[in-house]
Amino acid sequence: MAAALRVAIGLLVRKLRQAHLPGELTIAETSALSRLDRGGPATSSDMAKQDRISPQSMGATLAALEQRGLIERRRDPADGRRVVLSITAAGRQLVNDRRGARSELIAAALRDGFTAAERDLLLAAAPLLERLAERL
Questions:
Q1: What's the rounded Cα separation, in Å, for the pair 71 and 94?
Q2: Within a domain: residue 1?
């Protein structure tokens, strides 16, 4: 079961990543922007630790996002030596647009290639897959 799930989920993730969407970001940029959207403001070093990448790699990713106006840097009000990064309105809009576009790709595939009973099974499995991901 573990191998079958790994193969199926891996294929699904690869197909979603391969889908070209307007305003395409790299995987690292997508991860960083999504993290700021979900988790709120953070420092570059905290984000590097969470993604388990070097501070230099995270710095390059964040610089690219900042150059596109998707994130902004501000001094930490509690500690003026620290810089905190936040998602901008444009960044939040891009994240929402990308999520919506990928959800629509999945919805179209479900409409065109699955019966109502199969869609119900997938819907019932979704919380289990989410719980599995949280336990990894």
A1: 11
A2: no
Please give the tally of structural domains in the chain.
1
Residue 100 falls inside a structural domain? yes
Q: What's the CATH code of the domain at 111?
A: 1.10.10.10
47 and 85 Cβ atoms separated by less than 8 Å: yes
This prediction has a pTM of 0.69
What are the E-state strand segments in 7-128?
Answer: 71-75, 83-87
Domain contains 10: no
Separation between Cα atoms, residue 47 and residue 35, nearest integer Å: 8
Each residue's pLDDT tens digit in the chain (136 positions)? 999 999 999 999 888 877 766 667 888 898 899 999 999 999 999 999 988 899 999 999 999 999 999 999 999 888 888 899 999 999 999 998 888 888 999 999 999 999 999 999 999 999 999 999 889 8
Indicate whether 102 belongs to any domain.
Answer: yes
Q: Which domain holds residue 62?
A: 25-135
Question: Which tokens go with 44?
Answer: 């570059």
Residues contacting residue 89 through CB under 8 Å, at least 6 positions apart: none
Residue that has been written with the tokens 């070209």 in this structure = 20
